[in-house]
Backbone:
């Protein structure tokens, strides 16, 4: 079976992203926030279109109109929740309000993640082949509830296992055509990786922090692969601790000395670093992938995730 070396590059530049962000900010302010879904769509189009795999760009097929509908649903849902909390607080029931807030957020976050994954990957296309997310919302719900409760009852110790179980469930349910991702990271290894990083960072007065970030990045990347029947694409990290030191140090200098104006350049150079630090090789014949995923237009989960400000896990 032929062994292939695949290419993955990011070609976006900071000035182009700066112009997009400037227009996005102005229009979002003028429209009192209503332009935000279109702003996000423009941003995703920029990052997808400038990321190329085997010289073919990714495409984000979502639209601002789709995300606006989800934006309104998410806004109404969360507005109702926060209004209920404020009402209880004004009636001397602050504790009840805060308990209600945390319980409802605990219950809706798994559905937000599920919806976000369904929408984002249904709108991700490469070389005419659509990605897809095949997870079950109730499986994810019970995984998150169990993980959250065990993390609380173990005073945070179970957090490493919860993080890996969640990452593994999500990524193992992502497909491109009839090829499927697999993730092999486990909680025990991730836990000790963080213990080692934390202790060595303390001992070295912060110097090891950059190597700790390298170890985490390598662990996330090296345990990911794509499979199709007996074909496999291996994903490996080439990043070093020195690379992370240079990235973070230069980003910090850019941010401080430009009073934050260099943020678009910081984001694009970080994206370029991440993409260029990933090596891909294996035996998958991508020109033989078959389309198996359906379209999905409901962006409510994506917008709830935005409102709650938690990241997209990949």
Residues:
């Amino acid at each position: 079976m032929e062994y292939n070396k695949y290419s993955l590059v990011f070609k976006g530049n900071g000035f182009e992203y700066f112009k997009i962000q400037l227009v996005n900010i102005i229009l979002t302010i003028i429209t009192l926030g209503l332009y935000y879904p279109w702003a996000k769509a423009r941003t995703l189009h920029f990052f997808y279109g400038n990321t190329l795999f085997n010289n073919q760009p990714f495409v984000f097929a979502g639209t601002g109109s789709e995300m606006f509908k989800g934006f309104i649903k998410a806004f109404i849902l969360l507005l109702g929740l926060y209004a209920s909390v404020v009402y209880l607080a004004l009636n001397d029931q602050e504790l009840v309000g805060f308990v209600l807030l945390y319980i409802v957020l605990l219950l809706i976050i798994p559905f937000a993640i599920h919806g976000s994954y369904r929408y984002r990957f249904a709108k991700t296309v490469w070389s005419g082949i659509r990605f897809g997310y095949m997870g079950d919302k109730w499986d994810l719900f019970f995984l998150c509830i169990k993980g959250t409760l065990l993390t609380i009852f173990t005073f945070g110790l179970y957090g490493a296992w919860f993080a890996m179980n969640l990452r593994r469930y999500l990524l193992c349910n992502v497909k491109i055509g009839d090829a499927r991702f697999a993730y092999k990271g486990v909680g025990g290894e991730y836990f000790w990786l963080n213990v080692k990083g934390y202790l060595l960072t303390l001992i070295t007065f912060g110097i090891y922090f950059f190597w700790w970030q390298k170890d985490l990045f390598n662990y996330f990347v090296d345990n990911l692969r794509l499979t199709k029947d007996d074909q496999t694409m291996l994903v490996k990290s080439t990043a070093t601790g020195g690379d992370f030191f240079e990235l973070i140090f230069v980003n910090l200098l850019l941010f401080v000395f430009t009073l934050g104006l260099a943020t678009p350049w910081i984001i694009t150079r970080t994206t370029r670093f991440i993409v260029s630090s990933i090596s891909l090789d294996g035996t998958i014949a991508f020109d033989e992938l078959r389309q198996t995923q359906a379209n999905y237009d409901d962006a409510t989960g994506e917008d709830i995730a935005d409102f709650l400000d938690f990241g997209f896990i990949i």
In short: The first helix runs from residue 14 to 30.
